[in-house]
DNA sequence: CGAGCTATTAAGTGTTGCTAGGTAGTGGTA
DNA sequence: TACCACTACCTAGCAACACTTAATAGCTCG
């Protein structure tokens, strides 16, 4: 998509990835592919890997190395307790913002 | 609010301000005050002014200097045609993101 | 005059996603 | 063998954005 999407993803992409991990553990390549399937057609692989490094360093996820039939071993990430807290906080922040924006969109139609 | 909000505002704050301007023209100080009233309690003044400079340079708004009863003259910004287009694009981008996130929030409850 | 409110501007910082490239393992094919 | 495609991960450098902090400037009132 465009530049607007790039900027809008800042701050939300992290939550999106954590939300995906809250469903079930996954590895980077898989997450990228799933995002593409869901319509985020041009999220760069490098972006996801860098993001995963960040959340790992913050202790929001646990990591396990799992051998792959095809290619190098996978790093499988799973959300831990701290990550779940962080995700809850993310949803609260998101809800606040989404409500305000919905109000603005309604209000903008007349006035 | 917290750091999550700061990051999440990147890309959306611009749309928020343009949406406010789509209702009626306004000047920086006023916009800041209105945002505070709407719950964005700690958006820095400097942030809004910098944002207004950006959107002006991109030609999304028209500017008019209006004398104030109290203090220096105000720079009153109003959304122009190009700005309206940009705002439409913003809403489309937002809608896409909001839909995906709503799906993720629903899906995350079981699985 | 000095305090406090109105109103704008500007320099420097940290976080984030993107670009562009590299490393590595496996399997298929000419 | 040599080459290519797919899987899977990593890294360095860049641009954009919101924040912090501080400065500037005009007006009113005690």
From TrEMBL, chains A, B:
Short name of one Pfam family: PadR
Top-rank taxon, per record: Bacteria
Gene3D superfamilies registered for this protein in UniProt: Winged helix-like DNA-binding domain superfamily/Winged helix DNA-binding domain
Domain Transcription regulator PadR N-terminal: 17-88
InterPro entries found in the cross-reference section: Metal_resp_DNA-bind_regulator (IPR052509), Tscrpt_reg_PadR_N (IPR005149), WH-like_DNA-bd_sf (IPR036388), WH_DNA-bd_sf (IPR036390)
SUPFAM superfamilies: Winged helix' DNA-binding domain
Protein name: PadR family transcriptional regulator
Native species: Planomonospora sphaerica
